[in-house]
UniProtKB/TrEMBL annotation:
This is WD repeat-containing protein 89. It comes from Serilophus lunatus (silver-breasted broadbill). The chain crosses the membrane at residues 6-25. PROSITE patterns: WD_REPEATS_2. Keywords: Membrane, Repeat, Transmembrane, Transmembrane helix, WD repeat. The gene is Wdr89. InterPro entries: WD40/YVTN_repeat-like_dom_sf, WD40_repeat_dom_sf, WD40_rpt, WDR89. WD repeats lie at residues 112-154, 213-255, 364-396. The keyword Lyase does not apply. It comes from the Eukaryota.
Amino acid sequence: LQDVIAGFLYAILILVVFHPVVDLIDHFNLTYKYAPLIIITFEMMAVEKVEEQLASLRIAKRSVPSQEPAYLLDIDLSPPAQSENSRFAAVSCSNKSIRVYNRETLHFLREYSSHPGTLSGVRFAHACDSVVFSACTDGTVKCWDVRSATQKPVQMFSGYPSNVFISFDVNCSDLIVCAGTEKVEQDTFLVFWDARGITDCASAAKEPLGVYSESHNDDITKICFHPIEPNLVVSGSTDGLVNVFDINKDNEDDALTSTCNSESSVSFIGWSGKDYKQVYCLTHDEGFCWWDMAQLDTEEPITLLRVLDVRDLVCTENHSLHYLVGGLYHEKAEKLFLIGGTSTGNIHLISCGTDGLSLVGTLCGGHSATVRSFCWNLADESLLTGGEDAQLLLWKPGAVERSLTKKASLKIASSVQKRVRVHNSSLKSKKK
């Protein structure tokens, strides 16, 4: 409240300095006359405040090391719950297991290890804080109840015999699950299931509703449903294409609303901007592309920013950048940030603007090896990170870690290696 009051007084002060007092009196309805200036001032202050909070993130909690160390590949948080005791963090690991923690204390709760293949992520249901999904290279998506220690999923979604799932997501209404496959011979699929009634018939695997098979011609590495529009989904592939679909349409051709070409292998995709009308992607060679879907029906260019190698742009003498992990859109500040790091475990927070990228801050002293995953919690402005040192860390603004014991490097060997494949942009023409 103090920040809001101070911001308003600051805006009034600007008006007083640049406009005579008589003018303010004659035009008492200054809210309409100077609204753009006040809005811009508040937006600038909000962004500066968020950047300060990000730069002030400090370690609040560490998870206790597991008896079987593994890379922490993906993290998701359960949605806000009425009960303070039902808050979970789920982590997919390189040893083919899912670990569940208390999201506030990072106390280990349970582990699900009945996966015959490599996991491609974890996602909590949006309306239920105890239901978590996981996709596997064995051609299944499984649904787990994290309140139960049983190793049997409450529901399983089966793909077609040749499917090897390496990406997936659940839409914001929890009605549709979609998974992306590796390329097998000439086939690459987006596979869809009806996710309703996930606890009603756990004994039988659900069959797909259908597939999209024509829009990508190589491995589909990432899938991301729109945060507020359940019918919109974006997919990214090693063919360099980032496709946006409206799954309410009757067929794949009509569903494909836009195709953007990153000209490289896509490693991460997300939505950003007001009402989430923008799409961005990261590539396996550390590139960044950012597009505005609101410009599709206009004469304006849809590309907001394209950076071939972020490491060259934000690297400074004391803050080298070795890789990118992903991006996060801060709703309060309406600002997009990227997260990257170094092989020694430092985490870089990077601000995105149409005029370029800039380093906001660096989180040091936490991880001792490459950071592979993160999850942002807007409610308390905290950040969860996991890495190749098998550590799960909780960062909060201005936090002080109780244990001051120096953590030795826990970097471990793993068969899970990130594939880097750069493809020529001529594989498929760009559509607007």
